[in-house]
Amino acid sequence: MTSVEIIMTADTTYTTHHELVRECQRGSQSAFEQIYTLYGGAMYAVAHRIMGDREEARDMMQEGFYRAYDRIAQFRFDASFGAWLKRIIIRQCLDEQRRRRIDYVGLEDEHMHHMDTASDDQEPTYTVDLVRAAHAKLSDGYRTILSLYIYEGYTHREIAEILGISEQTSKSQYHRAKKQLKSIMQKSHG
Predict the structure, then answer these.
(1) How far apart are CA 44 and CA 62, in angstroms?
(2) Is the residue at 112 inside a domain?
């Protein structure tokens, strides 16, 4: 494929998705079903990384899509539709965690300790499945911050704003999450 064809393909996809959104805004349920088909897998992955449980992720994705359907008229095309939808899914997951009263504990009065880093040749090799299983075993708070930072690309400042915590708390929870993830993987690896 040449670069011109790639650009044309990207523009066509962009235009197609925006036209589907416009149809949804005009009340087309079949257009929203197409959006669900296009974005469902990616939004499930976002929810699963935050929730850590398949059934909960599926529920959060469904609820998030309901929210998006109710608020589709508010989409103003000033950002990508996928980013807008992802924010709704993340918010749905965080709302559920708040409902369960997940606490984020800060380390403002503690010193953060860096993880021991062994040389690369001493580090065991982990499989993707092992990392995913360990990630799912993290506490909700740790899993949420790790997911928002690593997978969703939010900064600690943005995470702090989203969760209503300090930036330092986000950083400390992230470091604790990495340490716990490493510990879980080491125990599982044998």
Answers:
(1) 9
(2) no
The set of residues, in sequence order, having a beta carbon less than 8 Å from that of 184 and lying 6+ positions away, is 134, 137, 138
> 177: closest CA among 13, 40, 50?
50
- My answer on whether 9 and 64 are in the same domain is yes
Q: What is the DSSP letter of 109?
A: T
How many whole angstroms separate alpha carbon 156 and alpha carbon 33? Answer: 34
8 with 93, same domain: the answer is yes
The model's pTM is 0.65
Say how far apart CA 135 and CA 130 lie, in whole Å. Answer: 8
> pLDDT-based confidence at 103, cuts 50/70/90?
low
Could you tell me the two tokens for 15? 């235009």
What confidence tens digit (pLDDT) does each residue in 65-82 have? 999 999 999 999 888 899
Tell me if 43 sits within 8 A of 61, measured CB to CB: yes
Query: Which one-letter amino acid corresponds to residue 38?
Result: L
Are 28 and 65 within 8 A, CB to CB? no
176 in Cβ contact with 145 (< 8 Å): no
Last residue of a domain, one of 68, 99, 130: 99
**Residues, the chain, total?**
190
User: Whole domain around residue 11: which residue ranges?
Assistant: 3-99
What is d(CA 11, CA 93) in angstroms, rounded to the nearest whole number?
31
